[in-house]
């Protein structure tokens, strides 16, 4: 089979037509675009980490005037960090954000508020329980609680207390995501909720045992990390996009603020009860 329009210049010979050869440039072009996109992500990750690298290099070489210990391992690890950050951002763009937005749109299309609230609570609870930063902080808090005499100084008691702390924080995040969904549906201003919440935090701080105050404030920060933030943000943006009269810019964001606020309140309450 020949392609009728493909002639060698000045000869008149036809070039054999091959479907596979016609498709090959498309495959190469698509793979080239994907490679260029990832290289841009890799370069962007390196650019984002450049200030941190610059600070470390300044103190290492200018202030302390010392060479890097085991420089080959450090440089290799730095490359892995940049590569991991680029892969993480690529995964967010191609997986977590679309999944969150699609689920929010599907639940909005079904007009099922109860199921939407159940999904919001499950999303907040599940992502928080799996949060590596919370696992680390809860483990350290269990050790401190044992040293302070609040629990028995044995591994079983420490593990149980740390697990309860993680569950309290996970429930608080689930509640905050539910409240965020209700806020988007009802159109409530977020600043009123945040101001009222922090007034409650100040009041509870005055009556909470001092051992729990720092843990509570840290719990509000560690819940909003690599696992929770992408899915919660995608849920808010997708939900506000699917509801008439809501704007993704003004209504879609703000859930992360609630997910940072309510863990403080719940952990302070856990400290008072304990």
Average pLDDT, to the nearest integer? 81
How would the global form be characterised?
globular
Strand percentage lies at under 5%
How far do the termini sit from each other?
82 Å
Low-confidence stretches are 1-26
How many beta-strand segments? 2
Rg over CA atoms: 26 Å
SS content category:
mainly alpha
What spatial order of strands do you see in the largest sheet? 1-2
SSE pattern: EEHHHHHHHHH
Work out the helicity level. over 70%
List keywords for this structure.
274 residues, disordered N terminus
Topology record:
Elements: E1 2-7, E2 14-16, H1 19-63, H2 71-110, H3 113-129, H4 132-147, H5 155-186, H6 190-205, H7 210-222, H8 228-242, H9 255-273
Antiparallel strand pairs: 1-2
Helix pairs in contact: 1-2, 2-8, 3-5, 3-8, 4-5, 4-7, 5-8, 5-9, 6-9, 7-9
Characterise this structure.
Helix content is 78%, strand content 3%. The protein has 274 residues and is mainly alpha-helical. The chain has a two-stranded antiparallel sheet. The longest helix is centred in the N-terminal third of the chain and has 45 residues, at 19-63. The protein is globular, with a radius of gyration of 26 Å. 29% of the residues are buried.
Question: What's the quick description here?
Answer:
The chain is mainly α. It contains nine helices and two strands; from the N terminus they run E-E-H-H-H-H-H-H-H-H-H.
């Amino acid at each position: 089979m020949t392609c009728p329009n493909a002639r060698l210049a000045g000869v008149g010979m036809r070039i054999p037509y091959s479907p596979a050869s016609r498709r090959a440039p498309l495959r190469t072009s698509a793979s080239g675009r994907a490679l260029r996109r990832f290289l841009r992500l890799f370069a962007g990750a390196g650019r984002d980490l450049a200030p941190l690298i610059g600070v470390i290099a300044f103190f290492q070489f200018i202030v302390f005037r010392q060479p890097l210990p085991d420089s080959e391992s450090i440089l290799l690890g730095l490359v892995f960090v940049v590569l991991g950050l680029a892969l993480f951002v690529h995964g967010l763009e191609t997986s977590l954000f679309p999944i969150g937005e699609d689920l929010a749109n599907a639940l909005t299309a079904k007009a099922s508020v109860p199921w939407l609230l159940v999904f919001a609570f499950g999303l907040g609870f599940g992502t928080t329980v799996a949060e590596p930063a919370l696992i680390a902080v809860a483990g350290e808090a269990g050790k401190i609680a044992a040293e302070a005499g609040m629990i028995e100084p044995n591994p079983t008691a420490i593990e149980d207390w740390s697990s309860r702390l993680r569950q309290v924080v996970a429930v608080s995040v689930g509640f905050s995501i539910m409240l965020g969904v209700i806020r988007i549906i009802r159109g409530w201003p977020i600043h009123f909720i945040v101001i009222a919440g922090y007034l409650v935090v100040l009041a509870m701080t005055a009556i909470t045992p001092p051992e729990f105050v720092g843990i509570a404030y840290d719990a509000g920060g560690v819940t909003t990390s690599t696992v929770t933030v992408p899915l919660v943000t995608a849920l808010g943006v997708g939900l506000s996009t699917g509801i008439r009269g809501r704007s993704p810019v003004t209504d879609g964001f703000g859930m992360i603020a609630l997910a940072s606020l309510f863990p403080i309140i719940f952990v302070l309450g856990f400290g008072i009860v304990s």
